[in-house]
Design goal:
2 domains, 12 helices, Rossmann fold, alpha/beta
Length: about 425
């Protein structure tokens, strides 16, 4: 489980801005997520803030989540960064308002602002950007604030700042808006500083995970008391779900990292031992994390073969090893891969390092979802006719339920779904 963010205090340094965005589902066949233009924009904005700023000693320029170390507790690291930031810069896109992770970042910062009080927190501390244009039928009150950045630049409202960042024909408009945004960040941070203070963790400001999750991370790993006699017990626990294949280099069990990836892509997620997750795996997309040492005990190969027989198409296996582990598990990993192929699993991925695991996970989550939407069970529409579902809140503030095949709500939009948005390789929603 993620440690409560309250145990971490904001640093004494402070940061000019925190960049918040909706993570993209990677294109089919890609190994990593598709937020390359966010990274480019972050680099450009950081350079412009650096040019204009007169920072206090030790003050950092900017933060976005690709700065988080691989093995860190992601949610705790985000809470710490949100507590250090002077200005919160959300990149609004149609996907932003459907991502609890992104909205949780904003709510955490707003809660911190409210605690700071009106005398210290001015309007400039939250400075949104229109990243990708919205369909004409989709409205959010926050968009008007984002449009303020470039009301005198028609190309901004029409195309969003991502297009201006991507396309050379908009270079002048992009540089103009970048300069304006950096000036607002610097002015707020230096003239109305909040100073570092505690920001609540994402789990404190978002709704608890539902009983019936969108996504499952299942783990097939031995417990500490069932290891082969010659296996180093480091990284193992009394519950296989708590397995840490990379030992002290990871703050959380590997299943928690996979679940956080699903959550960043807009899916509620649950971790479970494989043997306890049978009913869930029959009706929810999943990633199955496998420790090859599971087959080291006598007779274990036959037992595993029985367990994975009939594995659903939407349960995507990943064999996880550590290339730095002196107890080389490559032969065992090969045995597990062959066993899964023999059981009818067409593709089995392997990750041999923390970096490879992190890079692969967005694509595996997305592939499991694709397979579920293609092969998953179908629920019949209700016999009584109902009004069509609406994406907007009803008069009571409730969101109407969409009744369709399970997993329909799992569709992860990408920038390619937006007809008003350019489509180069590497897109963001």
């Amino acid at each position: 489980m993620t440690r409560p963010a309250g145990r971490r205090k904001a640093s004494k340094r402070g940061t000019y801005f925190f960049l918040s965005y909706a993570h993209s589902a990677p294109p089919q066949g890609a190994r990593t997520d598709a937020d390359v233009w966010v990274a480019q924009f972050f680099a450009d904005l950081s350079a412009e803030v650096t040019r204009q700023a007169r920072p206090k000693a030790g003050m950092r320029v900017g933060f976005f989540d690709q700065h988080i170390p691989l093995g860190a507790d992601w949610k705790a690291a985000l809470a710490e960064a949100l507590g250090d930031a002077e200005v919160f810069v959300p990149l609004y896109s149609p996907g932003y308002f459907s991502r609890p992770w992104a909205l949780g970042e904003q709510q955490s910062f707003r809660t911190r602002l409210a605690a700071a009080g009106a005398t210290r927190a001015g309007t400039g501390h939250l400075t949104p950007v229109l990243w990708i244009p919205f369909p004409s039928w989709e409205t959010h009150p926050e968009l008007d604030e984002a449009l303020d950045l470039g009301r005198d630049v028609p190309e901004y409202a029409e195309n969003g700042l991502r297009a201006l960042c991507m396309l050379a024909s908009y270079r002048d408009q992009y540089r103009f808006l970048l300069d304006r945004l950096a000036a607002r960040i610097v002015d707020t941070a230096e003239r109305q500083p909040l100073g570092p203070s505690r920001a609540p963790g994402l789990d404190e400001v978002t709704r608890p995970a539902p009983t019936d999750p969108d996504f499952v991370v299942a783990v097939l790993a031995p417990t500490r008391d069932r290891l082969p006699p010659d296996r180093d017990p480091g990284g193992y626990a009394a519950n296989g779900r708590l397995w840490r294949p990379f030992g002290a280099r990871q703050e959380l069990p590997v299943a928690e990292y996979a679940a956080s990836t699903a959550e960043r892509l807009g899916l509620s997620a649950r971790t479970a031992n494989f043997e306890d997750a049978g009913e869930l795996l029959d009706r929810r997309p999943a990633v199955l994390l496998i420790d090859p040492w599971i087959v080291a005990a006598p007779g274990a190969v036959a037992s595993l073969a029985a367990l994975v027989r009939g594995l659903r198409q939407w349960v995507v296996p990943l064999v996880v090893t550590d290339a730095d582990d002196p107890q080389d598990a490559r032969r065992l990993a090969g045995d597990v891969t062959d066993l899964l192929h023999d059981a009818g699993v067409p593709q089995v991925k392997q990750a041999c390092s923390m970096r490879e695991f992190v890079d692969l996970m967005p694509a595996l989550v997305t592939e499991a979802r694709r397979q579920y939407l293609k092969h998953g069970p179908v629920v019949a529409f209700p016999e009584r006719p109902e009004p069509p579902p609406s994406l907007r809140h009803g008069p009571t503030g409730s969101v109407p339920e969409v009744r369709s095949r399970p997993g329909a709500h799992l569709d992860l939009p990408s920038a390619a779904d937006d007809p008003a948005s350019p489509r180069p390789h590497g897109e963001n929603r």
